[in-house]
Design a protein that fits this description.
By secondary structure, this protein is α+β, with helices and mostly antiparallel strands. The chain has one domain: DD-peptidase/beta-lactamase superfamily (Beta-lactamase). It contains 13 helices and 13 strands. Strand 1 and strand 2 form a beta hairpin. Helix 1 runs antiparallel to helix 13. The radius of gyration is 20 Å and the shape is globular.
Length: 394
């Protein structure tokens, strides 16, 4: 064990001596980058070489981050949901080349009947938002969200281009999980992913675990008109402006803005955005995925792993207004946003810099979760940790 004071924070956990530079980088984030609380975990060749946590779970820095502290993982959960989907593909329960409507007949409306599941996973469905204005907190009503998405017209012709389905990805793919298994997303994730591995990643956090959750400390755009205007600048195209606004704010609270620290948010199942976990779980899941899954579980064979990390969408993103690159569910490394150092690395970032990824070339799996989100695209804390881990590998 290492217990290292860092100003007002305490870093704890274990770290192989070869990775001392990573521990120093993790600690330095508290000293000079404003980190409040975080956990980080790294596996190399299937072995955990780093498992660290530190700082505090609250804005007042009154309660320490513990080994079993959980925190909202934001879009890191998309990568974990992808692992679940691929496990169901491997088991023959989901066919990537089948139309979405084969499992979900109501989806075959207004030009979506031919969209294949692989297109849905690659953010090509044209459904980044619900068109119908919804009442506040309607995202807690699973059937209403899925029903609205199934019945509406897409914002663009499906499979002709791509755009980040920031909040709808989890409802769309989660509904397929439910129809393929007869289980809720939460139940399916536990049965097929977390329980076989013995880790904690929740999509719908039981009330009994809420006392372990770290508070998210950030300024929400909806609380500040200036920040909101910066987040959603008008383009002169009313259709696009509505699409972007609804992507993040329909219904109000959808992205976690103003809702992330509430009991209702933690209890709900919003797989794109509200998974709760620690970095240990994230890294362990990616480490197991690199080898096809833990003993006794079928997640993805070598062929399916290769297919899922092959480029399916690349170039201008209709939502992000910048280039993005996706495989099947996973974000892939690109020049403007590297994931590790290998072009073959894959995973998923979360809001403010949280990250889970795997690098098959280095046999590396990485998890980093925190409660003080930084820059949305390039958090210097995340970049520092990535640089440190590769420096330790040599």
């Amino acid at each position: 064990m290492v217990s290292q004071p860092s100003g007002t924070c305490l870093v704890d956990g274990r770290c192989d001596p070869r990775f001392a530079a990573f521990r120093e980088a993790f600690t330095s984030n508290f000293v000079d980058q404003g980190e409040i609380g975080a956990s980080a975990c790294v596996f190399v060749d299937g072995v955990a070489v780093v498992d660290l946590w530190g700082g505090h779970v609250d804005a007042h820095r009154s309660r320490p981050w513990e080994r079993d502290t959980l925190v909202n993982a934001y879009s890191v959960g998309k990568g974990i949901l992808t692992v679940l989907i691929l496990a169901l593909v491997e088991q023959g329960r989901i066919d990537l080349d089948a139309p979405v409507a084969k499992l979900w007949p109501e989806f075959a409306a207004l030009g979506k009947e031919a969209l294949r599941i692989r297109g849905l996973m690659a953010h090509r469905a044209g459904l980044p938002a619900v068109r119908e204005p919804l009442p506040q907190f309607a995202m807690y009503d699973w059937d209403r969200m899925c029903g609205a998405l199934a019945s509406q017209a897409p914002y663009w012709e499906p499979d002709r281009s791509h755009g980040y389905h920031c909040n709808t990805f989890g409802f769309l793919l989660g509904e397929l999980v439910q129809r393929a298994t007869g289980l809720s997303v939460s139940e399916a994730l536990a049965r097929h992913v977390t329980e076989p591995l013995g880790v904690e990643f929740y999509m719908g956090l039981p009330g009994s675990e809420h006392s372990r959750v770290a508070e998210i400390v950030t300024r929400f755009p909806t609380e500040d008109p200036t920040l909101l205007a910066q987040a959603l600048p008008k383009t002169g195209d009313p259709e696009r402006d509505e699409m972007i606004r609804h992507t993040y704010f329909n219904p109000s609270g959808l992205s976690g803005f103003g809702s992330v620290n509430t009991e209702a948010w933690r209890l709900a199942t919003i797989p794109s955005t509200n998974g709760h976990a620690n970095a240990r779980a994230v890294a362990a899941i990616y480490a197991a995925f690199l080898t096809g899954g833990p003993r006794g579980a079928r997640w993805a064979g070598a062929g399916l792993r290769a297919e899922s990390t092959t480029v399916h969408s690349d170039g201008p993103d209709r939502i992000l207004d910048r280039p993005s690159r996706f495989g099947l569910g996973f974000q892939l490394s690109q020049p403007t946003r590297l994931i590790g150092r290998s072009p073959n690395a894959f995973g998923h970032f979360g809001y403010g810099g949280s990250l889970g990824f795997a690098d098959p070339d280095a046999k590396l799996a990485f998890g980093y979760l925190m409660n003080h989100p930084g820059d949305r695209w390039h958090n210097p804390r995340t970049l520092r940790l990535i640089e440190a881990i590769y420096s330790c590998l040599g």
